[in-house]
Amino acid sequence: MPNKGDTGKSYHLKCTGDALRTAEAHSEQSDLTLFGGCFCPFVQRVWVALEYFGIDYHVHEVDPYKKPSELLEVSPKGLVPALKFNGLEKPRSLNESVVILEYLEEYVSQSSRRKKGSLLPPISDPYARALVRLQADHVNRNLVPAFYRYLQAQDTEKQIEGGKEFVSAIEGLVKLFERAAAETDTDVGLWKEDGKLSLADAMAGPWLFRATNVLPHYRGFMMPEGAKFRAYIDRLVNYPAFRRTCSTEGLYLESYERYAYNRPNTSQVANAINSGRGLP
What we know:
about 280 residues, Glutaredoxin, Glutathione S-transferase Yfyf (Class Pi), Chain A, domain 2, four-stranded mixed beta sheet, 4 strands, about 50% helix, Glutathione-S-Trfase_C_sf, GST N-terminal domain-containing protein
C-alpha cells in the first residue's frame, strides 16, 4: 500500500476548491434543494447535471452518515443525493441518483427550460439514445462496484484482483464508447473530441475522477494507457460543469481513508460490498 497506514482521518462535511465556490454561488434558497455530501460520487452525478442544464438550485450539505431528520424526510434510506421541491402545496422530493438524472433530463426536455442541450441524443435517434443508456448501465453494474471492491480490498492478492476488475470495467466502457462512435453520428458523449456531456459521462465521471487521486494514493493505481483514453479523461475532468463540482484532492484522500482501510460500518455502500450484496 503506497501510503503510511490508517491515520484515523474522518470524512469532510464541507466541499473545497471549485466545488466550494459553486456551493456558495447556490447558497440562496430556491425552488429546488440538492441534499448532498461533499465527497459522495453519487451526489456529484446529480450536481454535474444541474450545472450542465443551468437549473436554479440550492445546495444543502448534510452529514449522510448521521442521517438528520430533514434528510430522512426526502430520502427514506437516509442516502444522498436527494432533491426537495420547495414552495409547493404538497411536499415533493426525489432520491436515487439515476432516478434524479432521468427526471432532470425529462424536466429540461421541455423547450421553455432547455438551456444547454441534453445528456442523451435527440429523441429522433432512439438507437443512439439506447447506446448511451447501455453505457450508463455498464457504469452502474460494473464500474462502480469494481471501484469499491478494489478500494476496500485489504490483502495484496485481493487488491491485485480488484485492480484488474476495475481496469476491465473501464475497458468495457471504452468498447461501448467506440461502438457508439462507429454506429451512430451523435455528438453526445465526451469520447468524441468535440462531443457534449452525456448521461454516461455524468454517471461514470465521479469514479473515474477518483481513480486519478484516491486510487493512486491508496492502491498505487495507474490509469490504462492510450492517448485516446487519456484525452477522454482530460476532457471529462476539465469539462466546466464537471470541474465546478470538484473539491481539492485532500478532501477526497481524507474522506476515502475509511474505505481504503475498510473500517467497520464505513457506509451502506461499503457494507454491501463486504457482504456481496448489490449496492443500496
